[in-house]
Every structure is written in structure tokens, then in C-alpha cells.
Design brief:
The protein is of the alpha+beta class. 23% of the residues lie in helices and 25% in strands. The protein has a single domain, classed as Barwin-like endoglucanases (Beta Barrel). The termini are far apart.
Length: 171
């Protein structure tokens, strides 16, 4: 009787552990259908977390992101190591909320999970490394204009007017 109870407890602990170690990237990929899709935004089930976020920008203006966009001060997006390009992430900080696409890989800092563009950081009122709340909300097509404000015709138009010194933020 005592041995059966002990075996039962071990199995229960193993099952609970398996549930707790699910791969967030696999969950996000499954939640968004695992495709880039053709619709502007495909709804997804949630993948939420609270994590450290850094930001980048001025030293990278005029260069291409891993997803193919030209980085300018106007680009609003986020870098993540595992989520597919075009995944839409709702980022919240200090009462501000912004939905941004994944458009790059990173961050390269080992303690951070997210790397915001300078435009996203500025919109959220972030000027340093902070803890943000994130929530995967969908997926959109990955295009060269992804992350540009509405009304911008192309990334190359913005790149020609960018200074390498950047804006008021420093990453």
C-alpha cells in the first residue's frame, strides 16, 4: 500500500512537470497557425509573460532586420529569439500598451527576452532596461513595410532621412 502511494505521487509529479516545461515558441507557433498567413491579422490564443525588455535603434538605422525591414526611427516593432516574423505582440509598461510585430532576432543580452525598437520604446515611455508584460495576440504577413506607421510608403523613403546619431534614447 505504501509503495503504491509513493509510485502514484512520483507519476503525478512527473506529469505536472511535463505540463510546466512546455516550449513557449512552440505554443506561439501553434497559436498563430505556424504560417505567415495572407490576412492582415490572424487571431491567436494567448501567450503571456512578464519579462525583461531592452531597446535598440540608433546604431542600427539604415540596416536590415532579420525579417527584412530597413530599421529607421519610425519603425515600431520588437525583436525576439524564437517567435516567427510577423507575430503580433501586445507590450504593456507603466500604463501604456502597444501592439507590435516581431521583426528581428534578439535581444543579445542574456538577461532580456525582448528588444524593442527605439520607436516602440519611445511610444511606451521606456528609456532603460525594464520589465514589461507581453501577450501574443496574432500574426500578420511579414513585409518590408512591417512596423512602419500608417501612411509610410516604404522603408527606403524613411531610411534616406535618418541620421546615424539617432534620437533622444540610447540603447
Amino acid at each position: 500500500m505504501r509503495m503504491a502511494l509513493k509510485t502514484y505521487m512520483v507519476v503525478l509529479v512527473l506529469l505536472a512537470g511535463a505540463v510546466c516545461v512546455a516550449d513557449p515558441a512552440a505554443i506561439a507557433l501553434a497559436a498563430t497557425g505556424g504560417t505567415s498567413g495572407g490576412s492582415p491579422a490572424t487571431p491567436a490564443t494567448s501567450l503571456s509573460s512578464s519579462a525583461i525588455a531592452t531597446w535598440f535603434g540608433p546604431g542600427f538605422y539604415g540596416k536590415h532586420t532579420a525579417c527584412g525591414q530597413t530599421l529607421t526611427p519610425a519603425v515600431v516593432g520588437v525583436a525576439n529569439r524564437t517567435l516567427p516574423c510577423g507575430t503580433l505582440v501586445q507590450v504593456s509598461y507603466a500604463g501604456h500598451t502597444l501592439t507590435v510585430p516581431v521583426l528581428d532576432r534578439g535581444p543579445y543580452s542574456h538577461h532580456a527576452s525582448w528588444d524593442l525598437t527605439a520607436g516602440a520604446a519611445q511610444a511606451l515611455g521606456i528609456s532603460e532596461t525594464v520589465r514589461v508584460d507581453t501577450h501574443v495576440v496574432g500574426k500578420t504577413a511579414n513585409t518590408p513595410a512591417l512596423g512602419l506607421p500608417a501612411g509610410s510608403s516604404s522603408a527606403s523613403d524613411d531610411a534616406s532621412s535618418v541620421s546615424s546619431s539617432g534620437g533622444a534614447l540610447a540603447g
